[in-house]
Fold this protein.
Amino acid sequence: MTDRDCYHIPVMLKETLDSFLIDKDGDYLDCTLGGGGHAKAILEIISEKGTLLGIDRDEEAIDQASSLLNSYKNFSAANISFANIMKLDNIVFGLKFDGILMDLGVSSHQIDEPRRGFSYLSSGKLDMRMNKNDELDAYTVVNNYTEEKLKEIFYKYGEEKKARYIALNICKAREENPIRTTKELSEIIERSVPYKNRIKSLSRIFQAIRIEVNNELGEIEEFLKISLKILKKKGRVAVMSYHSLEDRIVKKFINDMAEGCICPKDFPQCICNKVPIVKKITKKPIIASDEEIKINPRARSTKLRVFELI
Ligand SMILES: C[S@@+](CC[C@H](N)C(=O)[O-])C[C@H]1O[C@@H](n2cnc3c(N)ncnc32)[C@H](O)[C@@H]1O
């Protein structure tokens, strides 16, 4: 199976469901509905009393998952980004959840559709917006950002060593003509790095631009804070991340929220009044089994972390 085929398989399905689906009559939120793979499995488990709300910032994901799941009476869907979930009417009216799932990153649909511009494997317009109504797209990043800013996002979001050189070559190329397609961008990246590193660099630079276009890290930080307001007591959040930048944010958030008093040890008594708000359910991240990685190479980088509201 190629990396591209495996985007169709829900990652670490059993591990995820076991870790956060604790009450079959409960209310659940799938923040990253995508193709609806995890959502279908949740709906198969919960009772008629339970509910699942699925959200995705990509309208095409909502359409795709809704056609798969519309026979389930206890399923509803909304096209909104998770950082904006407080704007949904049922949340405003007090709906809270027993379990929340975040399966971060891109969906198979986004990767497979050349016109969405997410993949260096096919040629398409430089777009990469998960929500087509967002203003910032990959074309603007690649053609309008300064060389310095491009270098910064390639380092920061792609952890790419040749960031400086790739940014320089993009700026030289766009002096001649705007860079319009994923193919044109890929050729510039390939020219800028040693042949043996080209696939890794392509994937790092595409990842960096995607993160910038969709403000992916900002969305995660914002939603984790929000999750504390929309969980029921003892409700759980399960987060699957696919690269270290995402995982670092999740890990730090859980550590901060699970920590009690932070006063210096030699203080006679606590003055910070900090108490743990969440309990770590996973002390270390759960990773995919060797068997799953063999069938689905995409699972090799997945880290699953789970926390519970105290
Ligand atoms: C890896 S896919 C989810 C796959 C899904 N679990 C399945 O089984 O089919 C990630 C999905 O999350 C969505 N997404 C990413 N960031 C989002 C955000 N900030 N708010 C809402 N949806 C987001 C993407 O549009 C994409 O459809």
Confidence is low (pLDDT under 50) at residues 1-7. The two ends are 42 Å apart (CA to CA).
